[in-house]
Write a structure and sequence with these properties.
mainly alpha, 0% strand
Length: 285
């Protein structure tokens, strides 16, 4: 964060994203409220049964634990304290799971926003004759953004890997439930539809936001191609070479790059998994 602060101070002449704070608030509200709705629907789907209806609060709590956390009761006897502990753990883990994706989204938007400010200035001088010192300063600013991107990637690449593996697993798990389970209550079907939709939304949002860093880092090359011949210099050539060869992208511990093509790979994996499930379900029937 100190490195990020120094960069913003050194590049203060490019300004600051005007709507960034509003975007952060809106996205945070959507993700966290969506996660809360999923958690409430999950609990309601377990309480929407004959034995849980017309029960008072202690009985509802016991019914929830016996239906949603039956694996815990195999080793531990039921108690109100244990029930409250499990309910709080479920709530905290829900928000921790959603915050994992939210953190990546917000970091990506903030970093891509810095590239957008630099690109905005570059587009304003596109095809205009500029002195060599100007191109040198822009190249230095771009290089500082590149170094910041690599620093961030070294710190959050494990989080990115965990996020994609986690989301892909639960999407596949929900698709499996769509084939193997029979929904006896409307609440269960409602929870399934919302959970799957919200999972896909979060996964797509993480992928698109993280890939926007790579997309924005490629924009300067189109401006450099349009530099007038009388302004072409060693600094422009060095800048152009760096843009074309330096891969500024977030990774998942270097297992894969987070670009827009990754989204197509994920879609292909999910569709393949669904086809295999359908084939096995027909074989079993």
């Amino acid at each position: 964060m100190l490195e990020w602060e120094r960069l913003e101070h050194n590049q203060i002449n490019y300004g600051f994203p005007a709507t960034f704070q509003t975007n952060v608030q809106i996205i945070s509200a959507l993700v966290l409220l969506g996660g809360l709705a999923e958690h409430l629907l999950y609990n309601y789907s377990h309480l929407d049964s004959v034995e849980c209806r017309n029960a008072d609060l202690p009985q509802l709590l016991q019914c929830l634990i016996r239906r949603a956390h039956s694996h815990v009761l195999v080793m531990i006897d039921y108690s109100p304290f244990m029930a409250l502990f499990l309910v709080l753990c479920g709530l905290f883990t829900t928000f921790a799971w959603n915050f994992l994706d939210l953190f990546i989204i917000l970091i990506s938007l903030a970093l891509a926003g810095r590239f957008k400010l630099l690109n905005k200035y570059l587009l304003s001088i596109k095809s205009k004759p500029m002195p060599e010192d100007t191109w040198k300063q822009i190249r230095v600013d771009y290089n500082n953004l590149s170094q910041l991107s690599k620093t961030i990637d070294t710190h959050i690449s494990k989080i990115i890997l965990l996020s994609f593996v986690n989301n892909l697993y639960f999407i596949c798990n929900q698709l499996l439930n769509s084939i193997t389970l029979t929904w006896s209550h409307t609440s269960e079907a409602l929870y399934f539809c919302w959970s799957l939709t919200f999972l896909i939304f979060r996964t797509v949002a993480v992928c698109l936001c993280a890939s926007s860093i790579y997309e924005e880092s490629r924009v300067p090359k189109f401006v450099l191609y349009a530099v007038p011949s009388e302004s072409y210099s060693v600094e422009v050539m060095r800048f152009q070479h760096q843009v074309e060869t330096d891969e500024i992208v977030l990774t998942a511990m270097n297992f894969f790059w987070v670009t827009r093509t990754l989204l197509l790979t994920l879609i292909g994996t999910i569709i393949t998994y669904e086809i295999v499930l359908v084939q096995f379900s027909h074989m079993n029937t």
